[in-house]
């Protein structure tokens, strides 16, 4: 037999571990597919709320249960099409459409389910408008007239839409001016008046309150009260102007209604605009979502305070967690004598990473809020008692609580990074005459920075998405002021704050209108994911830059 024939009959045995490699790869692919699918669902449902869909007008058949106030005409955006099971005597399934009909003040609800079998005809009227209001959600109807102080303008007038756009713009400008007066100017006056009263109270507690000081404070309060009344009168006059003009519209179900023009924020014709106008409206709505404050029990408006609160809390948590984690890791790795005690400490650190987050919340409430906060109030703010300053939940205590929760991750990653620094680099530094601390400071720590930032990335990812502990130590449904502003001392660590994770919980489980809140839940979830990815990406880029810079330290 030839050499070729002997080799042709030789059977090659597969590697013993090859099936497990394919098995692991299969499950990795399934996991990635699940992640991509989940993100796709969140992106689709989160962005669909901002795209201006066409509004259909449906004529129902006689006797349909979907009729609104006895009218067979229903108009709204199609939000969902689903299958439903028919009653037992009929059997089978049928399709139904979920319409967002708006006009919650007129109908008492914002959504309506309509069986496709009950639909007689569908049209898309071009003169139908969809308007965003300050209250009661969107308005869907036909414009009838403008009742202005200088006269009435009918919808048939050629300049009606221009006049409507102009008065809405004027109303928006007045609304912003009112907000500026009440939140900024009057807010500063109230803060100054509160500070004066507290100074008087403090002087009284210290026995330093003289008649001259009392007279001076009273004069300052009188001047601030005078300025307050001027600004309050100006705001009241602007509010009266907001109610001066009326917009008259006709519901799709019939019947006319009126609304103050000052309560309208914007409008558009959903069945008339083209693709590029829809794209412009889409970008505008996303911008408003990112920059405005929430309204209507958080189901309308934007989420800027929640974005700001989440970012500031995560930043403060990162500033707090890194020193604790790095110092503990340096001591455990470089200075402590390895033995049973150190092993027990490491086991305890690893176990802390598995403690439920709500336990850390309870600890933060008891230790930070009641003990530390109460002590700070007693020592430094006695004039404000019994109203607590730091003895209640705030962004500082929330950040420290999450720092404690994530510090085991930083300790473990920092220890691994310290252990990865080569022994030769340490010995070379010591041989050159450097002390142990100089070696750690100038050789070991710079080379370990990428690993430290890895732990910080993991801590940020966990901390930014936590909700349960925050509910006990500072997060609220709606925060009237931000932790950072232009009022001295500019950084207010005692203030409560909003958080995207809690905002999602509030929308999904505490909203009075669950159907209206569902798109906002997806949009806020997408935003939270984007914020966490952005923070992590920035930390990862910094880690890679430092890794390249100190690559030679590993040798």
The H-and-E topology, N to C, reads as HHEEEHEEEEEHHEEEHEEHHHHHHHHH
Fourth-tier CATH superfamily name of the largest domain: MetI-like
Q: What is the end-to-end distance?
A: 56 Å
| CATH topology type of the largest domain | MetI-like fold
List the keywords.
alpha+beta, MetI-like fold, 3 domains, five-stranded antiparallel sheet, globular, disordered N terminus
Describe the structure.
By secondary structure, this protein is an alpha+beta fold. It has 15 helices and 13 strands. The protein has three domains: 72 residues; 127 residues; 246 residues, MetI-like (MetI-like fold, Orthogonal Bundle), CATH 1.10.3720.10. Strands 6, 7, 8, 9, 10 and 11 form a six-stranded antiparallel beta sheet that branches. The N terminus is likely disordered.
SSE blueprint and pairings:
Elements lengths: L2 H6 L9 H31 L6 E6 L12 E13 L7 E8 L3 H4 L3 E5 L3 E5 L5 E5 L5 E10 L2 E4 L5 H46 L5 H32 L3 E5 L5 E5 L3 E5 L6 H17 L2 E2 L4 E2 L2 H32 L4 H13 L4 H24 L14 H26 L2 H9 L4 H30 L4 H4 L26 H10 L4 H36 L6
Helix pairs in contact: 2-15, 4-5, 7-10, 7-12, 9-10, 10-12, 11-12, 12-15, 14-15
């Amino acid at each position: 037999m030839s050499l070729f024939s002997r080799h042709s009959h030789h059977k090659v045995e597969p590697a013993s571990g090859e099936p497990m490699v394919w098995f692991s790869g299969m499950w990795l692919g399934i996991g990635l597919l699940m992640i991509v699918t989940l993100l796709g669902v969140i992106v689709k449902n989160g962005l669909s709320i901002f795209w201006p869909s066409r509004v259909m007008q449906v004529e129902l058949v006689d006797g349909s249960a979907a009729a609104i106030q006895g009218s067979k005409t229903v108009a709204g955006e199609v939000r969902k099409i689903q299958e439903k099971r028919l009653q037992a005597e009929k059997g089978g399934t049928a399709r139904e459409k979920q319409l967002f009909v708006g006009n919650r003040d007129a109908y008492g609800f914002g959504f309506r389910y309509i069986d496709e079998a009950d639909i007689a005809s569908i049209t898309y009227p071009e003169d139908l408008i969809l308007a965003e209001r300050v209250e009661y959600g969107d308005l869907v109807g036909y414009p009838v007239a403008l009742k202005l102080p200088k006269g009435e303008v009918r919808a048939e007038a050629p300049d009606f839409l221009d006049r409507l756009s102009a008065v809405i713009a004027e109303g928006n400008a007045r609304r912003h001016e009112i907000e500026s007066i009440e939140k900024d100017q009057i807010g500063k006056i109230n803060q100054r008046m509160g500070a004066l009263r507290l100074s008087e109270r403090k002087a009284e507690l210290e026995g330093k309150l003289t008649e001259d000081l009392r007279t001076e404070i009273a004069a300052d309060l009188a001047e601030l009260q005078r300025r307050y009344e001027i600004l309050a009168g100006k705001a009241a006059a602007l509010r009266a102007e907001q109610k001066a003009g009326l917009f008259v519209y006709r519901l799709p179900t019939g019947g006319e209604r009126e609304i103050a023009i000052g309560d309208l924020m914007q409008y558009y014709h959903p069945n008339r605009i083209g693709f590029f106008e829809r794209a412009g409206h889409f970008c505008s709505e996303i911008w408003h979502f990112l920059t405005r404050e929430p309204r209507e029990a958080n189901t309308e408006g934007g989420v800027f305070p929640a974005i700001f609160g989440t970012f500031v809390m995560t930043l403060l948590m990162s500033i707090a967690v890194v020193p604790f984690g790095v110092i503990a890791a340096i001591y455990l790795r470089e200075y402590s004598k390895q033995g049973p005690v150190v092993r027990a400490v490491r086991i305890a650190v690893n176990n802390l990473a598995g403690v439920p987050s709500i336990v850390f919340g309870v600890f933060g409430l008891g230790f930070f809020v009641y003990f530390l906060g109460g002590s700070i109030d007693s020592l430094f703010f006695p004039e404000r008692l019994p109203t607590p300053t730091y003895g209640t939940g705030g962004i500082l205590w929330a950040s420290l609580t999450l720092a404690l929760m994530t510090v085991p991750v930083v300790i473990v990653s920092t220890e691994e990074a310290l252990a990865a620094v080569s022994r030769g680099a340490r010995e070379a530094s010591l041989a050159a005459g450097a002390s142990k601390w100089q070696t750690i400071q100038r050789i070991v720590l710079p080379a370990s920075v990428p690993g430290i930032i890895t732990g910080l990335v993991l801590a940020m990812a966990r901390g930014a998405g936590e909700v349960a502990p925050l509910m006990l130590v500072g997060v609220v449904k709606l925060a009237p002021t931000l932790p950072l502003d232009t009022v001295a001392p500019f950084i207010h660590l005692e203030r409560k704050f909003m958080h995207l994770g809690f905002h999602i919980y509030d929308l999904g489980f505490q909203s009075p209108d669950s159907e209206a809140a569902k798109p906002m839940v997806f949009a806020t979830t997408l935003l939270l994911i984007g914020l966490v990815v952005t923070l992590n990406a920035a930390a990862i880029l910094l880690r890679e830059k430092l890794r390249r810079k100190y690559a030679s330290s590993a040798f």
